[in-house]
């Protein structure tokens, strides 16, 4: 069965000065997706408010999460979420985990997104989403059944704040740095997790900014596009794919979006192909 693409142009979870460009990025990608296999989530126009918490724009995040869960419930087969900021993975991973027992998550991202609201310097949710999925977050956002930390693999991650690094060490999170990331290392990590399926998250900032420009938070010494495609293939060869997400495309303008779309479409093709 062909993949269904869930386009979620959410920007409210981002702390970047280019946050609104995430809307442009999602729309640029949507223009190259098959219309019959694409579902667009209506994202509120306003920023929203924090509802008295330390999570910026919480009300908008809740609304988008709820709309995504409804849409995901009507999709049969593989759902590929197109962001928007990394916060769009809250609903997509929660849904995938609920219907796939024993699911691992491979988090391909320059950043671990493991802050709590208390440790986050920005209070932007895209830096908290993975910690929230692990069960430590605002009660209105944490899933009923959290992810198991033993089935989480950070891959290509290279920019950790002190609080995140401390959590990775104390919780024993598997982390594969860019220079160690190979088909073998990711396959070995998945085997060690004991998982029976896998969700694949791709934040485009896992790529080296010398190869990919449309990023709000570029980090040097990332992986190459060719290496990323090989890792995606290795993940799919190791376990059945329970879902996938591609996030954080923030082009400077329409021309710059065109420069990066070829790379994005290769990633989408690698994720969604049978």
Structural class: alpha/beta
Outline type: globular
How much of the residues is beta strand, in percent? 5-15%
Distance between the termini: 8 Å
DSSP helical segment count = 8
Q: Any idea what the radius of gyration is?
A: 17 Å
Average pLDDT score: 97
> Roughly how much helix do the residues carry, as a percent range?
25-40%
Strand order of the largest sheet: 2-1-3-8-7-4-5-6
Helix and strand sequence: EHEHEHEHEHEHEHEH
Which SSEs are present, and which pair or pack?
Elements: E1 4-8, H1 21-30, E2 38-40, H2 58-73, E3 79-83, H3 89-99, E4 103-108, H4 129-133, E5 152-155, H5 162-171, E6 174-176, H6 183-193, E7 197-203, H7 225-238, E8 241-247, H8 254-272
Parallel strand pairs: 1-2, 1-3, 3-8, 4-5, 4-7, 5-6, 7-8
């Amino acid at each position: 069965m062909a993949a269904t693409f869930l386009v979620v142009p959410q920007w409210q979870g981002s702390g970047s000065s280019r946050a609104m460009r995430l809307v442009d990025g999602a729309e640029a990608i949507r223009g190259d997706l098959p219309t019959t296999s694409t579902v667009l989530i209506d994202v509120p126009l306003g920023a929203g408010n924090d509802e008295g918490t330390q999570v910026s724009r919480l009300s908008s995040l809740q609304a988008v999460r709820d709309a995504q869960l409804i849409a995901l419930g009507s999709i049969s087969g593989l759902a590929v979420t197109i962001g928007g900021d990394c916060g769009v993975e809250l609903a997509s991973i929660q849904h995938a985990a609920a219907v796939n027992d024993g699911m691992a998550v491979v988090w391909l991202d320059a950043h671990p997104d493991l802050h709590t609201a208390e440790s986050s310097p920005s209070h932007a949710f895209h830096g908290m989403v993975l910690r929230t999925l692990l069960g430590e977050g605002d009660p209105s956002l944490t899933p009923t059944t959290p992810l198991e930390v033993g089935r989480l693999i950070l891959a290509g991650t290279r920019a950790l704040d002190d609080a995140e690094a401390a959590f990775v060490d104390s919780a024993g999170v598997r982390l594969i740095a860019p220079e160690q990331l190979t088909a073998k290392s990711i396959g070995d990590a998945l085997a060690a997790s004991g998982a029976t399926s896998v969700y694949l998250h791709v934040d485009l900032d896992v790529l080296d900014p010398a190869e990919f420009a449309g990023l709000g938070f570029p980090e040097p010494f990332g992986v190459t596009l060719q290496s990323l495609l090989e890792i995606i293939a290795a993940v799919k060869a190791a376990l059945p794919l329970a879902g996938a997400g591609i996030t954080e495309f923030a082009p400077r303008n329409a021309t710059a979006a065109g420069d990066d779309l070829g790379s994005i479409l290769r990633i989408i093709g690698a994720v969604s192909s049978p």
